[in-house]
Structures are given as structure tokens and as C-alpha cells.
Amino acid sequence: MSQLNEENVGGYSVTYSREDTYFPIYVTAAVAAVFLGAAWFTAGWYWLPLAAATAAFTYHNLPMLESGRPIIGANQYGIFIQALGLIRWRAIARIDVVPIADRAMISQQLQITLNAPLGSALVVDWRRQPLYRRLMRRPWWLGHDGVVRVNVEPLDQPAEEIHRSFLRMWRFYRS
Predict the structure, then answer these.
(1) Rounded to whole angstroms, what are the CA distances from 92 to 30, 95, 126?
(2) How far apart are CA 116 and CA 90, in angstroms?
(3) Cα radius of gyration rounded to whole Å, the chain
(4) pLDDT above 70 as % of the chain
(5) What three-state secondary structure class fits 162?
(6) Among 8, 41, 46, 63, which lies 20 to 30 A Cα-Cα from 102?
(7) pLDDT, tens digit (0-9, with 9 covering 90-100), for 58-97
């Protein structure tokens, strides 16, 4: 088990989908390059904050281009989430898919309720990221109530299928 890392987790895994996620990232990268070029050719410093802002947005969303890297999944030890770690099965109290209303759209969110503090629930802790990855998008966030939340909309499998697979594995490995 000591050889588990974010690229080699085994078991059931889900990645980012290849649908429309690339387009905004490539567009903002091109816009950042245009702003940088405008700053260079016009010698206008006022283009640099625009270039920096669009480049920062692109950099933050770069993990969405890693469609071959597992984002979330499960194996015999528990549920793994990129940039979080491996949550052991016995530390999970509930696994739910909750619809979240955000302005004019409804998205699906996987909520993993823990029955232990996060530090003791993790078998393997991947929260310490290399310096270059710390400002990049994380697929999870921890609520004040100790619930790990994962937005499943950009993933390559439907929320119901992910939920069903996690529940089936949770019931099997917990017993």
C-alpha cells in the first residue's frame, strides 16, 4: 500500500471528461498571449494586469486538461480523491449525490460524510502538493460540517453511476 500515489491507485477511477472543458482553457491561454503581445509591441504596461489575470485563470484550470489522470475513484482501501488522499471505508458515514442550484443551472455534487476527523480518516494523505500545483484547481473542498464535497459535473461518468459504484464498494469493503 505504500506505493499508492495519485497516478497509480488502481480500482475504479473517474477522470475529467473530454467534452467542452478544453475550449475555455485554450481561449483564455490565447487571450493571455494576445494581451502579453499587446504589452510587448505597444510598450503599454496597462496590458500586463490583463495578461496576468487571464494567465492565472488558465493556470488554475490546467488540471482539467489532464483527462487521463484519475480524479476520484475507489479501491479496496477506500475512496481516493486527487489532491486529498485515500479516505478509508470505515471512516465514511454516508455517500450522497446532492443537486446544487447555482443561479440558472443545477449541478450534481458528491458528498462524503465522515465519521472521523479528516486527518485520521485518510489512509494516504495527498494534501501536500508540489509548489507548482498548489494554486491549481482541486476537485474537492471540505465543508464546515466535515463533509467532503466533489463537483461531479466535469467528470467523464454520470453522477448516478459514480454514486452507485461508490455505494456498492462501500457496502462490500466495510463489512
Answers:
(1) 43, 8, 18
(2) 9
(3) 19
(4) 92
(5) helix
(6) 63
(7) 999 888 887 778 899 999 999 999 999 999 999 999 999 9
Cα–Cα separations (whole angstroms), residue 15 to 31, 81, 83, 117, 150: 27, 11, 13, 27, 13
In whole numbers, what is the pLDDT of the chain averaged over residues?
88
The letter for the amino acid at 74 is A
- CB neighbour list of residue 156: distance below 8 Å, 6 or more residues apart: 14, 15, 16, 17, 18, 67
**Whose CA is closest to 90, among 110, 111, 114, 112?**
114
Please report which helix (H) or strand (E) contains residue 144, including its range.
Answer: none
Q: What is the pLDDT of residue 13?
A: 87
Q: Is residue 84 located within the same domain as residue 151? A: yes
- Based on the fold, state whether residues 120 and 34 are members of the same structural domain: no
Whether 123 and 59 map to the same domain: the answer is no
Residues 77 and 112 placed together within one structural domain of the fold: yes
| CA-based nearest residue to 118, from 145, 82, 152 | 145
